[in-house]
Each structure stands twice: as structure tokens, then as C-alpha cells.
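Issue 218. Parser rejects a valid record. Input:
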Amino acid sequence: MAAQAHWSQGAPLTTPIPTAVELRERERERLLALLDASLAEIDALVPLDEARFLETHALYEGRSDQRQRIIEWFAREITPARRRDRPFQMLSVGCGSGLLDLPILQGLSSRSAEVHYVGVNPNRVECAAFERLFRETAPQGVSVELVPATFEAFQTDLVFDHIYFVHSLYYMPDPAAALEKARKSLAPGGRLIVFHAPCEALNDLAELFWKKEHSRPTLFAEGFAKLLDRWGWNYQQSRVEGAVEVTPLLEGDTDAGLALRDFIIQFDGRSLPASVQEQVARYLRLVAFEHQGRNFISHPVDVFSIAG
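Output the parser choked on:
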């Protein structure tokens, strides 16, 4: 005789029925656990070289509205002071290729008599790209000094009215020491500004790869706020919302899709086993949402404005 079911038609369920959102979250957590186990079986990951990083970063930022929102934040929140003894001085730690910083400088130049900008970046390919872009679009009244070095090795006698890290503090071997060093270079009344991502859908994925390579967790916005609280630093926290358009990720192994994936995980995904590449693709498809025929993933960043 067949076993009798414990539930009969019409009997009330004693367990709450999970919502679609809850089911989606359970699947997301399952995929992350599966991927974590798969990465543990890989001997080593292949980092992005400087050229591949520049290529994937440019493509990713070109499909994200976050860059424009950060530029708007600077235009809204930063008012350069006009000084008699020196220019308004800014230090960008991890300045990239200029795609973000030059529009920021263009906005500031119209509101200040003179701006001196120093950008620090160990990626020489990006520094060269910044120099080319600056020659083509140099804002009036702005002088630029690029230093192709790590922030740890960077030395200067200048003091700065604003020092900012835009998605760069994660890469510092000692984020706390980097912040202390930056704060010491602030002019009286200066501000230290850190744009730092929260650990949400995209970074939950990137965190697995980071942990595999570096054997330590990434300092995301949640941990960064706790660090500032522990130090007793005076700061204000806000959020810049954003989304990155990832339609190529859902269209198979296109060059654009692979480049987007590589920047998201911060490693060369082409070297991963096919099964792991598929797990990454499944995760990204799960967390994407559709809008007007295109696919996006939420891409916010938290802003910490720290008094000098």
C-alpha cells in the first residue's frame, strides 16, 4: 500500500509560504555557497593585468550611471575656497584614467580661481590614459600632477583641502593606515571623502573571489562605518544610488559580457573552469532586473565625509 501523505487537500499549512523575494534570496545564498565551494578547489586565480583592468573598467563605468551621480555629488557638495596664498588643492587616491576626475575638475574650475590636483595611482597604463585625456580636455585654471605609485609610497609636502578615495580603499593593504596618512595631509578645515560600496548583490560575489585570493575579507561600507565609530572620527554618511546595465552578460559569451563579468569579480574569468564560469553567470542573471528591455544590477555607493 502506498504511503499516505501527511497533508490532505483543504488542510491548513502550518509553515508560512515563502514569498517570491524570499525564494530568490534563498537561491542567491545557495549559489554563493556553491561558488565558494567551487573556488576552494581552484589552485589560483588570474588577476587582471593593467591593460585588462583599464579595458574592463572603462566598459563597466560606461554602462553605469554611478559615475555621473558621483560627479553631480561633487558639484552639489564641494565649494572650492578661493585662497590668496595658494590654489585650492585636491588629492585623489586611486585616480584612475581621468574619466571620473576630469569632469569633477571641470565643474570645480568654474567656481574657483585656481585648482591644483594631485592624482595617485600605481597603474601606469591608467596614468598615461589620464595624461592623454587631460591634454585634450584641460579645464581652465587647473594644474594636474599625476604620481604613478602606491599611496603607501606617495610622499608630499603639500596640504590638501579635499582628499578623496573613490572605490580605491578596498585595494589598500592597510586601509586604516591609508586613512590616517590621508588625514595628516589635510589642510585646516579640510575634508576626507570616501566613496565606498556596501556589501550587496554585486559585492557579495566579488567578495568570494577577493577572499580566495587574499585570505582576508574586504572592507565594505558596513565595516568602514564601524571602523570610524571605533576611532571616534566625526563623519557624515549618505548614499549615492546607481545601477549598471549588464544586458551583454545575459547574451552569452560576448566580448562585452565577459569584460563586465571580469570587472565585477576583479579577476580574469576566462581562466576559470567552465563550471565556475556558469555558476557566476547564473548568479548574475539571478540578481539582474529588467527595465525597458534592458537588464541592470543595483550598483550603489556610500559616501563618508570626514572632518579634518
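Fixed in the parser; the record now loads. Residues 1-8 have pLDDT under 50 and may be disordered.
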